[in-house]
Amino acid sequence: xxxxxxxxxxxxxxxxxxxxxxxxxxxxxxxxxxxxxxxxxxxxxxxxxxxxxxxxxxxxxxxxxxxxxxxxxxxxxxxxxxxxxxxxxxxxxxxxxxxxxxxxxxxxxxxxxxxxxxxxxxxxxxxxxxxxxxxxxxxxxxxxxxxxxxxxxxxxxxxxxxx
Length: 163
What we know:
Blueprint: H1 2-15, E1 22-26, E2 35-44, H2 50-54, H3 62-72, E3 88-92, E4 97-103, E5 108-115, E6 120-127, H4 134-155
Antiparallel strand pairs: 1-2, 2-6, 3-4, 4-5
């Protein structure tokens, strides 16, 4: 019983603090953002996570950033200033201000710019990868079985019979 309790506490401890992911689907734009995405957040300054944030599919495109912010809506809550959703950063201005799309209260309005934007929640999204079809798995299993059979056959010693 103690082992079970310790295991439950360990699993709970490992899962505590992990970012909550929201699955979304964007369709109808005819661009690279169409598809299934998993959106999470990162708490940092823009400079601290610049490489990560600039790798997002909406970076450099305000329209795509607004599309993501609108689709996510308030599903990730309002972690910034109590009434703003995570920031979908899409540009860093020369003065150090970060341009981003976000929803303030409920409606997702346009885009905003905040000087320095540090210690805030930024959104990150990764495409959801498809699950292999059962036929693909069957072909893989048959191929592995064939390799195993060929190796076993090759491993048998050769017997010479002299008469």
